[in-house]
Automatic annotation (TrEMBL):
Transmembrane segments: none annotated. InterPro entries: GntR_C, TF_FadR/GntR_C, Tscrpt_reg_HTH_GntR, WH-like_DNA-bd_sf, WH_DNA-bd_sf. The keyword Cell inner membrane does not apply. This is GntR family transcriptional regulator. Residues 15-83 form the HTH gntR-type domain. Coiled coil: none annotated.
Length: 244
């Protein structure tokens, strides 16, 4: 973990909605979740995904475009421009992005940590999640069911899915740890997501987590989360081995 614990998240506080959203999208670009040439979902889809207005999305994209990290064209999809020189310039202007160091750890260390943190999150979320949270999860699942061939959009939705569960743990430390751990190996996760059946498998694992949370069953929620994390671990290791 970084010595400046959760510095990136803390730096986003007290900013406008468009600045917060821009920061989150920049984090995804820096960690490799979003790659050079990726097409972003539409403004409407991003607004739905992050729970903000299209105006907020448009403003956030404008801020990122000013750093030269996306290309916004009228009548065409917005594309990521993940240029190393621009990334360096952006990190100099926004120092908190330089604190995203989770990829310096080995995969066993990270996933051992994820199992501890997210098992606790799942148990607590099963106790605290309410009708509004379950409804938002269902919306995300409905999206994911249509995204089996859209890895970029699915990963954005996947990130929101895991964060939503963590938010219902009612524990800010667990939430912050889970977000930092999620960033590990995202470049390899992209390699996994393009494989046939991978997104569909993750979707069905998400459904099992949702069902356990809806049933208010902490034991089953923990089991479903650990099963999902084991699947993510195995496929990530396989992608890493193939890349060697």
């Amino acid at each position: 973990m970084t010595t400046q614990l959760f510095a990136f998240e803390q730096a986003l506080k007290n900013k406008t909605k468009k600045e917060v959203l821009a920061g989150k999208l920049l984090e995804m670009i820096f960690t490799g979740l979003l790659r050079d040439g990726d097409e972003l979902p539409s403004e409407r889809e991003l607004g739905t995904l992050f729970g903000v207005s299209r105006e907020t999305v448009r403003g956030a994209l404008g801020l990122i475009a000013a750093y030269g990290l996306i290309q916004v064209s009228h009548g065409a999809k917005t594309r990521v421009k993940r240029d190393e020189r621009q990334l360096q310039r952006c990190s100099e202007l926004i120092p908190e992005l330089g604190n995203l160091e989770i990829n310096n750890y080995d995969i066993e260390t990270v996933f051992d940590s994820r199992k501890v943190v997210e098992a606790a999150i799942a148990r607590k979320a099963a106790l605290y999640i309410d009708a509004a949270g379950l409804k938002e999860m269902q919306v995300l699942l409905n999206q994911q069911k249509e995204l089996f061939n859209q890895p970029v959009y699915f990963q954005l939705s996947d990130k929101r899915f895991h964060k939503l569960i963590a938010e219902y743990s009612r524990n800010d430390i667990l939430l912050a740890y889970s977000e930092e751990l999620y960033a590990y190996g995202l470049n390899f996760r992209r390699a996994v997501m393009v494989k046939e059946g991978s997104i569909e498998r993750s979707y069905h694992e998400h459904v099992m987590i949702y069902d356990a949370l809806k049933a208010k069953d902490p034991d089953q929620a923990e089991k479903a989360m650990l099963n999902h994390l084991h699947s993510v671990y195995i496929t990530t290791v396989e992608a890493m081995d193939e890349a060697e």
